[in-house]
Amino acid sequence: MSTNGRRPSRYVSMPNTPVDRDMAREPVTTEPAGRAGRYAGLFAYARTAAERIAASPHRPVTGRAVRLRAAALALLDAPHRTPPDHEVPRTAAYDALDVLVEEWPSLAVGRLDGADVMRSRPGLWGRLMTEWPMMEYADALVAALPRLYTGTESVLEIGSGVGNATARLAPLYRERLVWTDRELSLVRHSRWPGTGRVFDFDLEPPDDLGRFDAIVGINALHCAADIARTLGRLRRLLLPGGILLLAEGNSPTRSDGTPWALDLLFNAFDGWWDRGGFRTRSEWREALSSQGYTDIRTSAMTAGSDDLGGLIWAYRPE
Ligand SMILES: C[S@@+](CC[C@H](N)C(=O)[O-])C[C@H]1O[C@@H](n2cnc3c(N)ncnc32)[C@H](O)[C@@H]1O
């Protein structure tokens, strides 16, 4: 246990991040009203997209497309979900699923990949990343950081992308924040307080990146070529006693193997289909402990009986 005095009780209460079912010591909080219905609606919509891809006469000829179609079949194998009888807000995830079905003939033969499809629909990727459900991961992480590590003097964000969390972190941490992505274009175009840097977490960090009290990442680290090696790199960027706090989705979401609703969509993208997509909580624990992190904890974002992932945090020993 840290003695640096800035780490509060490890068993903190975090609104909207209910207990990880296999971490009995974590506190139980309630699921926000409406999340289960919204998720059931999204799941049913993704299943319809999967039906159309599975029934399409266009057969996949690339590794990416083969995985995408396999993800469609896995969704169809999962128990049917009745969408809620009330209307649920339609977000960019629905639009992106529509586009996926529309572009399937080109995706199947490798004429396009997910990134090409998004480039041809300006604004869609930014909306997809910052609207529900993706924004819930950023919200949970930003709310939890000050509770898990008080008096944070320096924060590094990895894989900041279009700034789902950066936009929320920057007003709080200002010049104490360094946000990073491997894509120069994303870093260059961002205009938040703090410093934007290019950092490819598959490689050694730039020498002058600095060392940090807190390193955070939202739905980014699962893209790593070798998660354990990257975790080792990040540990060296942490100050003694510092926290690594991740928000990551989870798939499958049920013990019967039901995939996360958007597995299908994200299989169109490099960094997902070729890297294994979301990991399970036990895979994160194992990778963290193999790299010498301590006090490994998790919390779950549930939607009824689906476990959508949530927070994972651990500390660099003093
Ligand atoms: C799914 S997006 C999430 C972005 C952002 N964290 C969010 O929540 O909106 C994943 C991000 O990780 C970045 N990424 C993928 N592999 C990376 C790597 N090896 N090093 C750094 N960033 C990487 C991508 O460029 C992308 O911006």
UniProtKB/TrEMBL annotation:
Domain (Methyltransferase type) ranges: 156-244
Pfam families in the cross-refs: Methyltransf_12
Domain of life where this protein originates: Bacteria
Keyword Transferase set for record: yes
One GO process term, biological-process aspect: methylation
UniProt region (Disordered), positions on chain: 1-32
Alphabetical UniProt keywords: Methyltransferase, Transferase
GO-annotated molecular function: methyltransferase activity
Keyword Methyltransferase annotated: yes
Name of the protein this chain belongs to: Class I SAM-dependent methyltransferase
